[in-house]
Amino acid sequence: MTVSLLALAALVGFVLASVLSAGEAALLRVTRSGLAECLADAEHGPEPDPRRAGRARSALALVVEPTATVASFALVRVTAEVVAIAAATLLVQQAIPDPPSGDPVPELLVMLIALAAGLGVGVLFVRVSPRALGFRRPVHVLLALAPALTVISRGVARLTRLSVPRAPSSPEEHRRDVAYRVGESEDLEEEDRELVRSAIELADTIVREVMVPRTDMITVAAGTPLTKVLRLFLRSGFSRVPVVGESVDDVVGVAYLKDVVAAVHWPVEDGAGPAGLRPAADVAREAVFVPESKPVDDLLREMQTSASHIALVVDEYGGIAGLVTIEDLLEELVGELTDEHDTVAVQEPEELSDGEFRVPARMPVDELGELFDLRLDDDDVDTTGGLLAKALGKVPLAGSAAEVSGLHLTAERVEGRRKQLATLVVRRVSPVDGDNGGETGPFDAAGHPPKYEKEAHA
């Protein structure tokens, strides 16, 4: 009688553990869309199956909070495995006959035999085979085991509610769980998984993390003539620029390239004087202001609704912290946006002529000095682009130039939506350059503007 009970306990324990192991694997692999499709087919398909539909509903209920459900299954599975191994150990002890000497069977021998048998059965029939089945056919496994798994899940839930009050899961936890499940899914391509993860995590990203900081903003003074504003658009490559008053915090509005072009080339006869001399404030549109703590997904929806493409970001003290465009928000979903004018970034210095080099903007200052056999040391900046920006006192635009420590630095190309400086042309200062003394303008000796490699686009 005792042997039969022990054998039954071991068998039930191993069977229950294998069922839960398969259920765990299926629950980690299955998707709600797959179960929802199965439910729709069972309810409204060519051959409705109420029983299958009920199992599909039970399976869908299990995946509402998969982390908690898997944890409850693991608790019961481990308990079942312990009971099964304990029963198997006692069963082995009962099955081994006593030696002729009459001494009891050594406990170590019993434990070794039980351990070998338990590991063999446990690994093969509890861990490997059921889990492989659950991973291969998650929907079928969940539908088959849904009634038993539902009973176990509810039983554990009641016990946990009696022992420890359960806090409701927050939307953030739910999003993180969904992002994790998407990342583990092999039904989607890597690019698709990354896109879904980015969309889910968008709600946890705030505007401050994606904005163009105040120090990198390009602005135009409210009294600047429209001809100069148009020239700034061409040099910077932007199509929208904030118009400011006495300081960056005094935002008058936003100037749009198309409005400036229309005002200059198709002026309205309103007695305001020459069109090109009108101030930028005359064509500035009303600016949109958003707090830096605003979630990116909320701002994206608002910008879509209002058809606005740029917003000024305000910090907690009311000052301008930066600006953000709709492209900045979209990059959080799809990655860096480029166009046909973007080129491969220069990584190494390129000699253009005798003593003249094209260098990347991120080239360290000390390496630039080594290139020209000079000792360049600046505690304020680390890169060649930073060296030019410091000499200019502003963000470099294409064509901007300055002399630093015997070198003539010219901003050659900006790229990317944010029009960041990409390359510079550097040469030693010639005697003719020395007469200029300081920054040179964006025009060549013939008075023509340089050729820009970027078109204005947002």
TrEMBL record:
Pfam families with a match to the protein in the record: CBS, CorC_HlyC
Region of interest (Disordered), residue spans: 430-458
GO cellular component, one term: plasma membrane
Topology in membrane: Multi-pass membrane protein
Main subcellular location: membrane
Transmembrane region(s): 108-126, 138-157
SMART domains for the chain: CBS, CorC_HlyC
GO MF terms, alphabetically ordered: flavin adenine dinucleotide binding
InterPro entries to which the protein is assigned, alphabetical: CBS_dom, CBS_dom_sf, FAD-bd_PCMH-like_sf, FAD-bd_PCMH_sub2, Ion_transp-like_CBS, Transptr-assoc_dom
Membrane recorded as keyword: yes
Keywords: CBS domain, Cell membrane, Membrane, Repeat, Transmembrane, Transmembrane helix
Compartment(s): Cell membrane
Span of domain CBS: 211-271, 283-340
PANTHER family: HEMOLYSIN-RELATED, UPF0053 INNER MEMBRANE PROTEIN YFJD
Record family assignment: Belongs to the UPF0053 family.
Protein name: CBS domain containing-hemolysin-like protein
Organism: Myceligenerans xiligouense
Lineage: Bacteria, Bacillati, Actinomycetota, Actinomycetes, Micrococcales
